[in-house]
Amino acid sequence: MIVVLLAGGMGTRLSEETEMIPKPLVEVGGRPILWHIMKIYEASGFTEFIVCCGYKAHKIKSYFVNYFTENYDLTVHLGENKLEFHGEPSERWKVTLVNTGLETMTGGRIKRIAPYIGDQTFCLSYGDGVADLNIRDVVDFHEEKGRLATVTAVRSPGRFGILDIAEERGVKRFHEKPDNEAGWINGGFFVLEPGVFDFIDDDATSWEKSPLERLAAAGQLSAFQHHGFWKPMDTLRDQRELDEMWRSGNAPWKRWH
After folding, report:
1. Is the distance from CB of 207 to CB of 105 less than 8 angstroms?
2. Choices 3.90.550.10, 3.30.450.20, 2.60.40.60, 3.30.1460.10: CATH for 2-247
3. What pLDDT was estimated at residue 183?
4. For the segment 9-31, what is each residue's pLDDT rounded down to a tens digit?
5. Distance CA 17, CA 224 (A)
């Protein structure tokens, strides 16, 4: 199953870091937050990724193109025009990097990678949040419910959009960033059927607005309720908190060895 990662935004709330690099490359414990998210998926057996690039796309492409050069010992055979890398790869990922546009909204980025998905179920995540989540559990839940889309719901203060969850964990309504309201919110980590592409109009469509609202209204959005750790990296303070967790050996999202 392919994992789609949204990594094209400008990350303006983390401008201290994102003036030079895209937000998904901001480091936690010496590794980009994007690497941590991919390791979460790898821990559940998912190793094929599509990264939706936009802002400073060349930086993300360079990171993966130069991955071995940056992370492994190597010998340069100048006379033979050859590089020799030492050691076994710690990550066996297949990564497709797609430039989905600088100004494209989240829904538009998803629609642009439809040709790479075809008719298969796929996962989707934002490139800036981590959780102690077993992705396989979310996929199993999605298959059990049989709806077009499943969102991982997490608890958080009311600065995020609220999910009204009905019986059988179908989402009755999706509404964004209400005032003075707390409850279950969109934590990302979606499992989707290709039918969701029909709910996205164009590049100007925000995934969190009309597509999710319409999927909920059509009875096609399920909520996998995650009671464990979840944290987005929205601000410099968030980055520092995540970095301290990692460096202190207390990173709940580290499910791999």
Report:
1. yes
2. 3.90.550.10
3. 78
4. 887 777 777 788 999 999 999 99
5. 32
